[in-house]
Write a structure and sequence with these properties.
By secondary structure, this protein is mainly alpha-helical. The chain is built from six helices and three strands; from the N terminus they run ααααβαββα. The two termini are 39 Å apart.
């Protein structure tokens, strides 16, 4: 899939940012007036079609009150933290406030087989959800966007509840 993004950094802080991908401008033959631009502007062969959609995307967000949609998504995410954590016998990894939680939430799990858990969620329940290791922990993450609803999150909750009841080793390592 293709995507598009942009990076804005105040001029006085630009010298602190190194590129995630080192490419053309890192050791520029013809350096420009800005090392920041040299480092970040070109990562290689580029398809500009995604960039050309940015003005239409911004207009769409303005016409559809994206701030309100984002706030509604955040409310759904925060409203569900406790019930997922209670079911999985875990605690939130951050305070459950708008300062710490956006439109996604990661829940720590203790699975004997995270790949089997992910495969089961997909094959049996038709749910695609990230299950990710981080340091010595394992997390499952749900996210809510404008195209999701509380009902979608209820489907994940019921699937997880079923897995807890039928295959607890996938969520509770012993």
């Amino acid at each position: 899939s293709k995507g598009s993004s942009f990076l804005y950094v105040k001029k006085e802080l630009q010298h602190l940012f190194d590129p995630l991908v080192i490419s053309w401008g890192y050791d520029a033959i013809y350096p420009s007036h800005s090392q920041f631009l040299d480092y970040h502007q070109m990562q290689g062969t580029r398809d500009f079609s995604a960039f050309l959609t940015i003005p239409s995307s911004i207009q769409f967000m303005q016409e559809n009150n994206w701030h309100a949609r984002r706030a509604a998504c955040n409310e759904i995410v925060m409203h569900n933290v406790k019930r997922f954590c209670d079911m999985l016998h875990t605690n939130p990894i951050s305070p459950v406030t708008k300062d710490f939680i956006g439109q996604m939430f990661s829940i720590s799990i203790n699975s004997n087989d995270p790949l089997a858990l992910k495969a089961l969620l997909f094959s049996k329940y038709k749910i695609e959800v990230p299950i990710m290791p981080h340091n010595d922990m394992l997390f499952i993450r749900y996210s809510i966007q404008a195209f999701n609803s509380q009902e979608d999150l209820d489907v994940l909750y019921e699937a997880m509840k079923d897995i807890v009841a039928t295959e607890p080793a996938l969520l509770f390592a012993f």
